[in-house]
Write a structure and sequence with these properties.
Elements: H1 3-15, H2 36-40, H3 44-47, H4 64-74, H5 81-110, H6 116-144, H7 148-174, H8 178-181, E1 186-188, E2 195-197, H9 202-209, H10 212-230, H11 232-298, H12 300-328
Antiparallel strand pairs: 1-2
Helix pairs in contact: 1-4, 5-10, 6-7, 6-9
Length: 329
């Protein structure tokens, strides 16, 4: 990333999408395509990038400007995105814990089974080695940050732990045969599910506990613990609203089923009403035709035609009789 890109990212993170006076992005932070875990600052895809367990690029949108918009809008309205991020991290950590348990089962099947006493001594060595590795990694980080006094204080604590570890290793070695002691006894890291050996030196343990993979999982677990304290109580409000919406949708479905039943019943009423309308229409047609006939009968024009037709016939008969009388004469 160039210096120009870094400056642009810093401005986006500080001022959001409207840093140039107008909103240039067509997508909003509330869009479903935006990663809500990224807006809260705990997306595992970003935290574990370039590690042995790199998850690849997140399928949802990551934009620092959208995160700035969300942080401004969150001050006015609660969007409950931290609750969604908490559920995302819970699913991710649950998957990691399943991998850890599977790795423990594989070790139990492949490694030589130890007695309870020997296993307790081996666990003591592992715990001291892990504590030394954590403190050594922290001392190195403090030294790089310029906090020399704190780093030297931790180094004094590390020397005391190394002496305890030496005594624990001696007790563990004396409790098992020499041939078995040479075998590498592995243990699974509870944070990142990586394998740790009982014979690993302090530098290797410091590299593990100070590495990006372990620190990434550690930050994810710490963020999840923080969200479970702050977002879990508010999750009840969302659950109540979800239950209310689901109840309303189910009641809508019940009303819809009832409406279908009512529609089935009303088909009979509609058919009967159509029959009544058809019968009334027929009656209206009959009455209208009868009224039309009555009007025709009362019409003076029709009466005159009927009255003239008999007269015309009688006059024609008279003329014919007269012509017959002339012929006889």
């Amino acid at each position: 990333m160039t210096a120009h890109d870094q400056m642009r990212a810093m401005l986006d993170q500080l001022m959001g999408t409207g840093r140039n006076g107008e909103v240039s992005n067509s997508i909003k932070f509330s869009d479903a395509r935006v990663c809500k875990s990224f807006l809260v600052g705990c997306c595992p895809h970003d935290i574990l990038a370039t590690t042995r367990m790199d998850l690849g690029e997140c399928l949802k949108v990551h934009d620092l400007a959208l995160r700035a918009d969300y942080e401004k809008a969150q001050q006015k309205k609660d969007y409950f995105y931290d609750v969604e991020a908490m559920e995302h991290l819970q699913a991710f950590i649950a998957d990691c814990d399943r991998r850890t348990e599977a790795a423990k089962r594989r070790l139990a099947e492949t490694q030589e089974e130890l007695s309870a006493e020997v296993q307790t001594k081996a666990n003591a060595v592992h715990e001291l080695a892990e504590e030394i590795g954590k403190k050594l990694a922290k001392a190195e980080a403090l030294g790089e940050a310029g906090q020399v006094e704190e780093s030297m204080q931790l180094m004094g604590e590390i020397e005391e732990l190394r002496a305890k570890k030496a005594r624990a290793e001696h007790e563990y070695r004396s409790s098992i045969p020499a041939s078995s002691y040479q075998q590498q006894k592995l243990r699974v890291c509870e944070v990142c599910s990586a394998y740790l050996g009982i014979h690993d030196n302090d530098v290797r343990l410091a590299d593990h506990f100070g590495g990006k993979l372990h620190l990434g999982f550690l930050s994810i677990r710490e963020k999840l613990t923080e969200l479970e304290k702050t977002a879990a109580p508010r999750k009840k409000d969302i659950d109540r609203s979800r239950n209310r919406s689901s109840y309303e949708s189910s009641s809508d479905r019940r009303r819809y089923v009832g409406a279908r039943e009512l529609d089935g019943r009303s088909r009979v009423h509609r058919s009967r009403s159509r029959e009544r309308k058809y019968d009334s229409k027929r009656e209206n047609n009959k009455s209208s035709s009868s009224r039309y006939d009555s009007r025709r009968s009362r019409s003076p024009h029709n009466n005159s035609r009927r009255s003239r037709s008999p007269k015309g016939h009688s006059s024609s008969y008279k003329r014919r009789d007269r012509s017959r009388e002339r012929d006889r004469r």
